[in-house]
Amino acid sequence: MRRAFTMVRISGLVLLLAAASGSGCSDASQKPADGGTDSATLNCGSNEAVDPTAVIDDMEAPDYMTVRASGRSGAWWAGGDAESPGASITPNGDAAAETIPGGRCGSQYAMHVTGHGYSMWAVLSASMGWGSVDGGAEGLLPNDNSFRTGVTFWARIGDTSSNQVRLAISDKYSRPEGGICVENGAADVACYDTHGVDLTQLDTTWKQYRIPFGGLTQRNFGLKRDHLDASSIYTVEFQFNPTSVFDFWLDDISFY
């Protein structure tokens, strides 16, 4: 089968574009997602071997735990702010993968989060680890990925979903567990100002994203840093537009 592959670089984000059906593996030709005129058949990703130590989760277990690799012992969690009456998110708390209708290129399970009605924040998050340091209280633990370049994954949205989703990565400067920023602190020291990027061209077809750490920026409401500290990653998050309906699918996420 001929494979078609287009790379688009937008503000540091590299989007690997491939025509795809909503169910995943089809040979039907479609117009390329970058607006080109040549037809393209579905691409299930590159032919490069995947480094097993780089995998965050392939979701095939399926449960809420991430893959145990390279010192990571994390889990998936979904939730939103408690100040929004009537808001809803599913799953709420520990988030397990669910079956992909029709599958996707051999993959049978993916993370799937739906929700609406939040006024402040809503998120799907993968932690890197959990435990205590020097006998202290248990909490999130960091993972060293300074020898990696970025994050890659597959994503799509549902028919009625907002397409406003931000990839965000937290480090010791943006998480209170790092002991540097101040939770509920002033703007110049506040926590949670993660480095991230809005996902472009997100729609109902599966697309592969390949996002370098160097392309991530903050939203400038907290402790300011000019780059992500990849040696102390705590979480990889997908932040949803809280004022919109969201229906988000995520599969095969890995560092590279």
Your description of this structure?
It is a single chain. The protein is mainly beta and 256 residues long. It has a single domain, classed as Jelly Rolls (Sandwich), CATH 2.60.120.430. Helices cover 0% and strands 35% of the residues. The chain is built from no helices and 17 strands. The strands form 3 sheets. Strands 1, 2, 3, 5, 7, 8, 12, 15 and 17 form a 9-stranded antiparallel β-sheet that branches. A 6-stranded antiparallel β-sheet has the order 6-4-9-16-13-14, with no helix packed on it. Strands 10-11 form a two-stranded antiparallel ribbon. The radius of gyration is 18 Å and the shape is globular. Residues 1-11 and 17-42 have low confidence and may be disordered.
The separation of the N and C termini measures: 26 Å
Q: In percent, how much strand structure appears in the residues?
A: 35-45%
Overall structural class, as computed from helix and strand content, comes to mainly beta
Rg, nearest Å: 18 Å
Shape type: globular
What is the CATH topology assignment? Answer: Jelly Rolls
Query: Which percent range fits the helix content?
Result: under 10%
The DSSP helix count reads: 0
What is the name of the CATH superfamily?
Galactose-binding lectin
Average pLDDT number: 86
Largest sheet: 9 strands, antiparallel
| H-E string | EEEEEEEEEEEEEEEEE
Query: Unreliable stretches, pLDDT < 50, 5 or more residues?
Result: 1-11, 17-42
CATH class, named Mainly Beta
Count of discrete domains: 1
